[in-house]
Q: What sequence folds into this?
């Protein structure tokens, strides 16, 4: 399963250059990890966003967002965002910032 290389490059630009940030191929796509915790990722052309439990309902109300059901069941605290709602850099930056804000508070693995 391939992932959108263009979206991957845009995420690289949107995420700050901080220690502990790494890329890892997973879920048939690409994940961006912070200190071993998944932050954002790409599955095909969708953004996989780890927003956390407190921002979950708010995230679901955003354009293009839906429950992440990659395994056949809903994964609370994570959403998929459709590609057409990521065409502007500001849209992608919003999601990267939201995810980074949550994951930065998690202990490293």
A:
């Amino acid at each position: 399963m391939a992932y959108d290389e263009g979206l991957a490059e845009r995420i690289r630009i949107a995420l700050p250059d901080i220690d502990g940030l790494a890329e890892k191929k997973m879920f048939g796509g690409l994940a961006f990890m912070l200190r071993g915790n998944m932050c954002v990722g790409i599955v095909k052309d969708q953004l996989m966003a780890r927003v956390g439990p407190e921002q979950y309902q708010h995230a679901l109300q955003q354009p293009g967002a839906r429950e992440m059901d990659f395994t056949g069941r809903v994964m609370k605290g994570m959403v998929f965002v459709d590609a057409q709602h990521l065409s502007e850099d500001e849209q992608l930056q919003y999601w990267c910032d939201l995810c980074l804000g949550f994951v930065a508070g998690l202990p490293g693995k």
